[in-house]
Write a structure and sequence with these properties.
Elements (H helix, E strand, L loop, with lengths): L2 E10 L6 H11 L5 E11 L2 E11 L6 H8 L4 E11 L1
Antiparallel strand pairs: 1-3, 1-4, 2-3
């Protein structure tokens, strides 16, 4: 079984949120078997900055669903969307 790399767009619920703290909370929320392989930041609008972690997950049933759910439950997260997925 291989692995999948997914770039996930995480929108904070406020432009005033501390992105470093949010990044730490996202890392702590990862389900077993998943790991983050770097973060990017994307200026969206009006001071709002999205986090774009690249997450490595096993290539099995469910794919990135567990990660998306975990990220969605993190305090300060407005929305979560998979931007790009590829096998590695």
């Amino acid at each position: 079984m291989g692995k999948v790399a997914a770039k996930i767009k995480v929108m904070p619920d406020s432009p005033d949120i501390d992105l470093d703290e949010l990044q730490e909370r996202l890392e702590q929320s990862l389900p077993e078997g998943a790991k983050i392989n770097g973060f990017e930041r994307d200026d969206v609008a009006f001071g709002l900055v999205a986090l774009l972690p690249t997450v490595i997950v096993p290539d099995d049933a469910g794919g990135t669903e567990a990660v998306e759910e975990s990220f969605g439950d993190v305090t300060g997260v407005e929305s979560v969307a998979v931007e790009n997925v590829g096998r590695i």
